[in-house]
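re: ur question from earlier - yeah i can do the single chain one, its not a big deal. heres the input i used so u can compare w yours
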Amino acid sequence: MRTLFIHSTGTGPFLWDFVPDEVVPEASRLTPANLGYPPLPPLARGQPFSVLDDVAQLRRQLPAGPVHVVAHSYGGLVALKLAALPAVEVRSMFLLEPVMFGAIAHDVDASAEARAELERFQREPWFLEDEALGGTEAWLEMFIDYWNRPGSWKRLPDFMRAHSLAMGWKMFQEVRSVFAQSGTYEENPLPPVPVTLVEGERSPAGSREVIRALKQRHPHARVVTLPGTGHMAPMTHPEKVVEALRAHRATVG
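and the output i got, formated as tokens:
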């Protein structure tokens, strides 16, 4: 059976290079690039985009038959919308902090800490609304520093900053989708299959809130907290992600 890996904003299919063959054999992996990421052409500045565009292009690449799905961050939102399509047969899901900030805004039970993070972005409306600044260095600095820690953008190697700037417009559009197009939790249900939800112990409150809300609505999901990690655990602590993925795979065969 094939396993579909969906990468996150600002990364690429290389995000999954750390997964060893004994956990997911290379021959069974599907590691497509999201729209706008190499080896696909970049999304031209000004070109409109919806998360459903990524869903559609991934759907076209899926072979017939069931698939396991592994996804990170924005890729988790894509995965949930893909799994909702009637022609897609998902056998299991391993979701690392799927981001659905729009759902948090509609959830009366959301934590005060998560709501405070959303209010931070509301105090900086240019981050989601200014198309002239979206995806530029100033925008990328706020994005990277939020998911990591202050000063992270400036500490990135030159080649990683260049990589992000080349895809800045698409990254901007993805973040807009996370806020405006994610929908409610009820509109993005977890399928009735084995699901592992993974969070970093030190991740921002917003992403941990999504894990809490999904678990509350779907008791069949298993939650794993990776100690000492943040949102970018696939890059900073791949060995801990592998351990969690190995345990997930053991439950689904």
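The chain has one domain: 2-252. not sure if urs matches, ping me
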